Amino acid sequence: MASKLVVLAIVSVLLGYYVYTPIPEAVEERWKLMLVDAAFRSLEHLAELTELIGFKHYMEMMMVLTVAESVDPSSDENVNVTDTTFSKVPVRVYEPISHSPGLRRAVIYIHGGGWCLGSAKMQPYDLLSRKSATELDAVIISVEYRLAPVYHFPDQYNDVYTVVKYFLQRDVLLQHSVDPGRVALSGDSAGGNLVAAVAQQIQEDPDVQGEIKIQALIYPALQTIDFNTPSYQQNENMPILPKTLMVRFWSEYFSCDKLLLQNMMANSHTTLESRSLSNFANWSIHLPERFRKDYKYMLPDRGNTDSSARIPGVFDSRAAPLLVGDEKLRSLPQAYIVTCEFDVLRDDGAMYATRLEKAGVQVTHEHFEESFHGAFMFITWPTDFAIGQKMVSHYIDWLRKNL
Fold first, then answer.
1. Beta-carbon neighbour count of residue 213 at 10 Å?
2. Of the listed 126, 188, 226, 343, which one is catalytic?
3. Active site residue 98
């Protein structure tokens, strides 16, 4: 009996040691986040092992999360849900059943997941779309774009662009009873990246019939120049999205080339040509003082740039929309940008908000001091967080007032 108790004690200590992760005191429900992170890290370790032995690519194993949370299109008393295609790109459409007078709002939503994971069919995105459709009396178009490692940039971007251009056709908007002047483009994380990129490019397309009134970016990834911003340094080991995972997402977006990944991890991937873009993401200039703290700016090292030079798209503004001049920002639609204090991507969003404001764009930058990357999607049991519910509530309230 005594030996069993000893074994149980040892197992408990080891389990506690594995689960425990230092998390800032400001974060609410810290132990719940530790448990979620422990499960996530376990899958990461399994993915690393399967890739090491040549069984599966790392991201293919990580897709287990996406598959496990996928739900079928199921209509209810409030929303009609259908899976269809727009110009051959899969989308899930949510339409309110109530017959309101006049035309409705519409939100084209782009899911996150580092361009490698995620799906419009995942339960959290399904819940967000239903909630948005009901509370905003809006048609929601949730885009199922192609993912890495099977598909690389610009395929993800092209899929989203195709859907937006298709939906903005006058006959398509009329078919869905949508007001052409009340269309928003919204997304989280990698989805926020795609939103910003498409919003920039589509305004220059003479064949696009409609326009985007609102761009909503939830903790977006926006630049490939510097992976050593204050937020990358401060939150290097934060749960859910540590620096190593975010940089890997960036690398996989462009290529499976391991040298590119190594150079990006060392922040030594910039080329001589890309140096001219550095000022667009220079956090010593564009980042508000409260986020700079005591960190010192250093120009990213060029190091070994062979991989960056031969892999197309790494510094393309369609992939890194912060890397454009002010002339391309001035005509952009009103923006709602959400950042979280404990997120490696915090400074990307904060710098974009600053630059948009300086360019004359109307911007609402909402910063959550107590939040972390991914919280916006932690809204379903058993991973529902109060801060996630709060962020979603603020997002919907803002759209209700501005769209």
1. 18
2. 343
3. no
**What is the end-to-end Cα distance of the chain in Å, rounded?**
66
CB 359 within 8 A of CB 330: yes
pLDDT given at position 15: 47
DSSP character string of 172-197: HHHHTTEEEEEEEEEEETHHHHHHHH
Decide if 373 is catalytic: yes
Is 394 designated active site? no
CA 218 – CA 129 distance, rounded (Å) = 15
* Amino acid at position 76, single letter: D
Catalytic position from the list 119, 142, 186, 189:
189
Out of 111, 152, 286, 373, pick the active-site residue: 373
Would the pTM count as exceeding 0.85?
Answer: yes
Residues of the chain with confidence (pLDDT) below 50 = 4-15, 17
Predicted confidence at residue 14, as pLDDT, reads: 37
Strand pairing report for 363-372 and 334-342: parallel
- How does pLDDT run across 170-182, given as a tens digit for each residue? 999 999 999 999 9
